[in-house]
UniProtKB/TrEMBL annotation:
PANTHER family: HYPOXANTHINE PHOSPHORIBOSYLTRANSFERASE (PTHR43340:SF1), HYPOXANTHINE-GUANINE PHOSPHORIBOSYLTRANSFERASE (PTHR43340). This is Hypoxanthine phosphoribosyltransferase. GO terms for biological process: GMP salvage; guanine salvage; hypoxanthine metabolic process; IMP salvage; purine ribonucleoside salvage. Its EC number is 2.4.2.8. Pfam families: Pribosyltran (PF00156). Keywords: Cytoplasm, Glycosyltransferase, Magnesium, Metal-binding, Nucleotide-binding, Purine salvage, Transferase. Its cofactor is Mg(2+). GO terms for molecular function: hypoxanthine phosphoribosyltransferase activity; magnesium ion binding; nucleotide binding. GO terms for cellular component: cytosol. Transmembrane segments: none annotated. The keyword Metal-binding applies. Pathway: Purine metabolism; IMP biosynthesis via salvage pathway; IMP from hypoxanthine: step 1/1. It is found in: Cytoplasm.
Length: 185
Protein backbone atom coordinates (compact mmCIF):
# COMPACT_ATOMS: atom_id res chain seq x y z
CA UNK A 1 0.00 0.00 0.00
CA UNK A 2 2.20 2.85 -1.23
CA UNK A 3 -0.32 5.61 -1.97
CA UNK A 4 -3.17 6.48 0.36
CA UNK A 5 -6.02 8.96 0.16
CA UNK A 6 -7.22 10.99 3.14
CA UNK A 7 -10.15 13.27 2.38
CA UNK A 8 -9.02 15.46 -0.54
CA UNK A 9 -5.29 14.66 -0.42
CA UNK A 10 -3.02 11.87 -1.66
CA UNK A 11 0.00 10.71 0.30
CA UNK A 12 2.95 8.46 -0.56
CA UNK A 13 5.11 6.37 1.72
CA UNK A 14 8.01 8.17 3.42
CA UNK A 15 9.07 5.99 6.38
CA UNK A 16 8.03 2.39 6.90
CA UNK A 17 7.27 1.13 10.39
CA UNK A 18 10.34 -1.12 10.56
CA UNK A 19 12.57 1.89 9.78
CA UNK A 20 10.86 3.91 12.53
CA UNK A 21 11.27 0.99 14.97
CA UNK A 22 14.99 0.59 14.27
CA UNK A 23 15.65 4.31 14.78
CA UNK A 24 13.49 4.37 17.93
CA UNK A 25 15.51 1.49 19.36
CA UNK A 26 18.76 3.39 18.78
CA UNK A 27 17.40 6.54 20.43
CA UNK A 28 16.26 4.46 23.41
CA UNK A 29 19.73 2.95 23.78
CA UNK A 30 21.29 6.43 23.65
CA UNK A 31 18.91 7.70 26.35
CA UNK A 32 19.74 4.67 28.54
CA UNK A 33 23.40 5.64 28.31
CA UNK A 34 22.94 9.41 28.70
CA UNK A 35 20.59 9.12 31.73
CA UNK A 36 22.28 6.20 33.51
CA UNK A 37 21.74 6.46 37.29
CA UNK A 38 19.19 9.26 36.82
CA UNK A 39 15.41 9.13 36.87
CA UNK A 40 14.09 11.41 34.10
CA UNK A 41 10.50 12.49 33.59
CA UNK A 42 9.30 11.82 30.03
CA UNK A 43 6.58 14.27 28.98
CA UNK A 44 4.69 13.37 25.80
CA UNK A 45 2.96 16.22 23.95
CA UNK A 46 -0.51 14.99 22.95
CA UNK A 47 -2.03 13.96 20.67
CA UNK A 48 0.63 13.36 18.07
CA UNK A 49 3.30 11.79 20.29
CA UNK A 50 1.21 8.88 21.61
CA UNK A 51 2.61 6.10 19.39
CA UNK A 52 6.23 7.30 19.44
CA UNK A 53 6.07 7.77 23.22
CA UNK A 54 4.79 4.20 23.69
CA UNK A 55 7.36 2.62 21.37
CA UNK A 56 10.25 4.73 22.71
CA UNK A 57 9.47 3.96 26.34
CA UNK A 58 9.56 0.22 25.57
CA UNK A 59 13.26 0.72 24.75
CA UNK A 60 14.02 2.74 27.90
CA UNK A 61 15.41 0.57 30.70
CA UNK A 62 16.43 3.17 33.27
CA UNK A 63 14.02 4.18 36.09
CA UNK A 64 11.77 6.99 34.85
CA UNK A 65 8.40 8.68 35.26
CA UNK A 66 5.95 9.31 32.44
CA UNK A 67 3.26 11.93 31.88
CA UNK A 68 1.52 13.82 29.09
CA UNK A 69 0.47 17.37 28.34
CA UNK A 70 -1.94 18.89 25.85
CA UNK A 71 -1.28 22.32 24.40
CA UNK A 72 -3.88 24.50 22.75
CA UNK A 73 -2.99 25.70 19.26
CA UNK A 74 -1.01 28.86 18.93
CA UNK A 75 -2.00 31.61 16.53
CA UNK A 76 0.77 33.34 14.63
CA UNK A 77 4.35 33.65 15.77
CA UNK A 78 3.67 35.95 18.72
CA UNK A 79 1.18 34.11 20.92
CA UNK A 80 1.89 30.44 21.44
CA UNK A 81 -1.14 28.87 23.14
CA UNK A 82 -1.18 27.36 26.58
CA UNK A 83 -0.77 24.06 28.37
CA UNK A 84 -4.39 22.97 28.60
CA UNK A 85 -4.09 19.76 30.52
CA UNK A 86 -1.42 17.66 32.21
CA UNK A 87 -1.83 13.94 32.88
CA UNK A 88 0.23 11.84 35.26
CA UNK A 89 3.04 14.34 35.84
CA UNK A 90 4.79 14.55 39.22
CA UNK A 91 3.47 17.52 41.26
CA UNK A 92 6.78 19.29 41.01
CA UNK A 93 9.37 19.26 38.22
CA UNK A 94 11.91 21.20 40.31
CA UNK A 95 15.38 19.61 40.06
CA UNK A 96 14.09 16.85 37.76
CA UNK A 97 15.60 15.84 34.42
CA UNK A 98 12.92 16.38 31.79
CA UNK A 99 12.71 14.73 28.36
CA UNK A 100 9.91 16.19 26.21
CA UNK A 101 8.71 13.72 23.57
CA UNK A 102 7.24 15.02 20.30
CA UNK A 103 6.19 13.45 17.02
CA UNK A 104 7.39 16.43 14.99
CA UNK A 105 9.19 19.75 15.29
CA UNK A 106 7.90 21.92 12.45
CA UNK A 107 7.92 25.69 13.18
CA UNK A 108 9.14 24.94 16.72
CA UNK A 109 6.48 27.24 18.22
CA UNK A 110 4.74 24.51 20.21
CA UNK A 111 7.97 23.33 21.80
CA UNK A 112 9.21 26.84 22.41
CA UNK A 113 6.09 27.47 24.46
CA UNK A 114 6.21 24.12 26.29
CA UNK A 115 9.89 24.52 27.20
CA UNK A 116 9.30 28.03 28.58
CA UNK A 117 6.43 26.76 30.73
CA UNK A 118 8.46 23.84 32.08
CA UNK A 119 11.48 26.08 32.79
CA UNK A 120 9.29 28.07 35.23
CA UNK A 121 9.50 25.09 37.60
CA UNK A 122 13.33 25.20 37.48
CA UNK A 123 14.06 21.58 36.49
CA UNK A 124 17.64 20.22 36.58
CA UNK A 125 17.66 19.80 32.79
CA UNK A 126 15.33 19.87 29.78
CA UNK A 127 15.94 17.95 26.53
CA UNK A 128 13.66 17.21 23.60
CA UNK A 129 13.28 13.93 21.74
CA UNK A 130 11.36 14.26 18.48
CA UNK A 131 10.74 11.53 15.93
CA UNK A 132 10.67 14.03 13.03
CA UNK A 133 12.30 17.40 12.49
CA UNK A 134 11.71 19.79 9.56
CA UNK A 135 14.79 22.10 9.73
CA UNK A 136 13.60 24.22 6.78
CA UNK A 137 10.34 25.09 8.58
CA UNK A 138 11.88 26.12 11.93
CA UNK A 139 10.93 29.64 13.08
CA UNK A 140 12.49 29.58 16.56
CA UNK A 141 15.71 27.76 17.49
CA UNK A 142 15.25 24.86 19.93
CA UNK A 143 18.60 24.37 21.62
CA UNK A 144 17.14 21.58 23.78
CA UNK A 145 16.52 19.37 20.70
CA UNK A 146 18.90 16.51 21.54
CA UNK A 147 17.36 13.37 19.99
CA UNK A 148 15.92 13.40 16.45
CA UNK A 149 14.67 10.34 14.63
CA UNK A 150 14.64 11.71 11.10
CA UNK A 151 15.21 15.10 9.50
CA UNK A 152 12.65 15.53 6.74
CA UNK A 153 11.94 18.08 4.01
CA UNK A 154 9.35 20.82 4.49
CA UNK A 155 6.46 18.59 3.39
CA UNK A 156 3.20 17.73 5.12
CA UNK A 157 3.28 14.25 6.67
CA UNK A 158 0.71 11.90 8.21
CA UNK A 159 0.68 8.58 10.04
CA UNK A 160 2.18 7.12 13.21
CA UNK A 161 0.47 9.74 15.39
CA UNK A 162 0.42 12.58 12.86
CA UNK A 163 -2.94 13.60 11.45
CA UNK A 164 -4.55 15.36 8.52
CA UNK A 165 -7.95 16.82 9.58
CA UNK A 166 -7.92 14.45 12.54
CA UNK A 167 -7.39 11.35 10.40
CA UNK A 168 -4.42 9.07 9.78
CA UNK A 169 -2.93 8.96 13.28
CA UNK A 170 -3.44 5.17 13.40
CA UNK A 171 -1.35 4.42 10.30
CA UNK A 172 1.72 2.27 11.06
CA UNK A 173 3.92 4.06 8.52
CA UNK A 174 4.56 7.75 7.81
CA UNK A 175 3.43 9.25 4.50
CA UNK A 176 4.17 12.56 2.80
CA UNK A 177 1.75 14.58 0.73
CA UNK A 178 2.11 13.97 -2.99
CA UNK A 179 2.69 17.15 -4.93
CA UNK A 180 0.48 17.49 -7.98
CA UNK A 181 2.52 18.53 -11.03
CA UNK A 182 0.65 21.04 -13.18
CA UNK A 183 0.60 20.09 -16.89
CA UNK A 184 3.00 21.86 -19.22
CA UNK A 185 1.39 24.72 -21.18
O1 LIG B 1 6.61 22.86 15.52
P1 LIG B 1 5.16 23.23 15.38
O2 LIG B 1 4.90 24.03 14.12
O3 LIG B 1 4.61 23.88 16.60
O4 LIG B 1 4.36 21.88 15.10
C1 LIG B 1 4.52 20.72 15.86
C2 LIG B 1 3.30 20.41 16.67
O5 LIG B 1 2.17 20.31 15.79
C3 LIG B 1 1.51 19.09 16.03
O6 LIG B 1 0.57 19.22 17.05
P2 LIG B 1 -0.89 19.83 16.84
O7 LIG B 1 -0.94 21.19 17.48
O8 LIG B 1 -1.29 19.73 15.39
O9 LIG B 1 -1.77 18.87 17.72
P3 LIG B 1 -1.87 17.27 17.67
O10 LIG B 1 -0.60 16.73 18.28
O11 LIG B 1 -3.07 16.98 18.47
O12 LIG B 1 -1.98 16.86 16.21
C4 LIG B 1 2.62 18.16 16.49
O13 LIG B 1 2.12 17.06 17.21
C5 LIG B 1 3.48 19.06 17.32
O14 LIG B 1 3.05 19.11 18.68
O1 LIG C 1 3.57 17.81 8.71
C1 LIG C 1 2.74 17.75 9.65
N1 LIG C 1 1.76 16.80 9.66
C2 LIG C 1 0.85 16.70 10.65
N2 LIG C 1 0.83 17.50 11.71
C3 LIG C 1 1.79 18.46 11.78
N3 LIG C 1 2.00 19.39 12.74
C4 LIG C 1 3.04 20.11 12.37
N4 LIG C 1 3.53 19.67 11.18
C5 LIG C 1 2.75 18.62 10.79
Amino acid sequence: MNNIEIEDRTFEILLENHTISKRTRLIGIQINVDYEKRCPVFIGVLNGSFLFMADLLKEVEIPCEIGFIRVSSYEGAESSGSIKEAFGLPDNLHNRDIIIVEDIVDSGLTLNYVINEIQKQVPASVKVCSLLFKPAALKVPIKELEYVGFEIANEFVVGYGLDYVGLGRNLKDIYREKTVLSPLP
